[in-house]
């Protein structure tokens, strides 16, 4: 099958597009899919759901995949809280509940890397209810980095200082308890 | 405050003030996506839970803010369409979401959608380039809501959202920007790829597909994870400043090298708007953009700047039909649109 967009390269990715409930199929080469993908993936409510796109990229969208291989039925990966399976997440491009993030944690990291330009860890705002301790933890992590550097630079006095700071922050985290 | 007010006026009152960089940047928008820990995401939510949740969210925020709660089930499809055209709700909330609702401030600078793709979508709007101020406003609302609910949040992933493209900050910061100079000098196509490389997206707001009616574009962040809210906004501001500089030099170049042509274009469009009896959306948008450029450059001084913003919204199908009091066929719409624009411009001349 040849790519419908450039009509040059062979189509290796396959999408379903639903407009007003009517499904159309789209067959693209890797290059065109990437271009279109960027176009569609980030629009708020795209014609091509990100699920279709993920499905294509991971070759999980079985309905008309040209992939000949038959995978053995694996144990179904599922969120215990909302019963959404990983396959459903991929098809819909949407999680069912907050716990899905935990349930699909291992599968999620590469997906996030792809969608978020390599980023997988939040560094922004923190809800007030867990704010205090988490901000302290971030500060501790940063100090640990500086501690390593100080040791590497053989600046032992500075290192000792930083270690004291870390200890006092760690005590604070313990005393504030927090939920995490 | 009543539903009528939101439906009948094309111009939200926050649009009446001119913000910084108003000659190029029409408005700034900040959106925060949030979900509650104890409920499934909207697509799996049951009716009674949705009801309970809408109550809890509006209670918390209404203690501090004066907001009107509108439930989608209580609105006609035409009323919903008008709210979409004013960018107060999304097409998804209007047409697809079950149990959708929106909380609106009187000046329409705040819109909190409930049970859209996420439980909560806080949206704040300001005129001109005011992203930091708008982020601050959204953050304050976020804190007010959080006082009564428990957000779904993970230390690693941040604010958890229905779709992984929003996870982390849940922030979408954007500006609506008028770029006739970059279009006329055919420079925008060169600039867009550079912007995408920085993790930001440019797209037309009005019109379908790649077509951008009225030379109005939206620039927003793609990435929501791994950068703080302040950094995202800071980066967007610096991109916008660069685009403003390009747009300004394009306008200067046009005014210097082909002044009479540009002036001709502007006044022809003004002539079309003040005289036509039938006008399609696309032509109206192009002419409005030309006239607005003419105002910015100083060729036209008896028309107010807000005309582009206002008439772009007022001449959308939903609004035209709202004014007409019922459904209109496409040709009837084009006639109404022409009449409305003529009327509005006459009003300006008499001021
Ligand atoms: Zn191709
Ligand atoms: Zn789940």
TrEMBL record, chain A:
| Domain of life where this protein originates | Bacteria
Signal peptide location in the record?
A: none
Do you know which InterPro entries this protein is assigned to? UVR_dom, UVR_dom_sf, YacH
| Residues in UVR domain copies | 137-172
Any one GO MF term held by the record is:
copper ion binding
Q: Which GO terms describe its biological process?
A: stress response to cadmium ion; stress response to copper ion
Tell me which PANTHER family the record gives. PROTEIN-ARGININE KINASE ACTIVATOR PROTEIN
Q: What is this protein called?
A: UVR domain-containing protein
Species source reads Pseudobacillus wudalianchiensis
**Organism taxonomic ancestry:** Bacteria, Bacillati, Bacillota, Bacilli, Bacillales
UniProtKB/TrEMBL annotation, chain B:
- CDD domains, per database record: bacterial_phosphagen_kinase
Keyword check for Cell inner membrane, yes or no: no
Question: Phosphagen kinase C-terminal domain: from which residue to which, for each copy?
Answer: 24-250
Check the record and name the PROSITE patterns matching this protein.
PHOSPHAGEN_KINASE, PHOSPHAGEN_KINASE_C
Q: Which GO terms describe its cellular component?
A: extracellular space
- What is the protein's known function? Catalyzes the specific phosphorylation of arginine residues in a large number of proteins. Is part of the bacterial stress response system. Protein arginine phosphorylation has a physiologically important role and is involved in the regulation of many critical cellular processes, such as protein homeostasis, motility, competence, and stringent and stress responses, by regulating gene expression and protein activity.
Native source species:
Pseudobacillus wudalianchiensis
- Which reaction does this enzyme catalyse, per its entry? L-arginyl-[protein] + ATP = N(omega)-phospho-L-arginyl-[protein] + ADP + H(+)
Q: Kindly list the biological process annotations in GO that this record carries.
A: phosphocreatine biosynthetic process
Question: Listed GO molecular functions?
Answer: ATP binding; creatine kinase activity; protein arginine kinase activity
User: Keywords in UniProt for this one?
Assistant: Allosteric enzyme, ATP-binding, Kinase, Nucleotide-binding, Transferase
Q: Is-annotated flag, keyword Translocase?
A: no
How's its activity regulated?
A: Appears to be allosterically activated by the binding of pArg-containing polypeptides to the pArg-binding pocket localized in the C-terminal domain of McsB.
Q: Which family does it belong to?
A: Belongs to the ATP:guanido phosphotransferase family.
Supply the Pfam families for this chain. ATP-gua_Ptrans
Enzyme's top EC category: transferase
Record-given protein name = Protein-arginine kinase
Q: What is its EC number?
A: 2.7.14.1
- UniProt lists the gene as mcsB
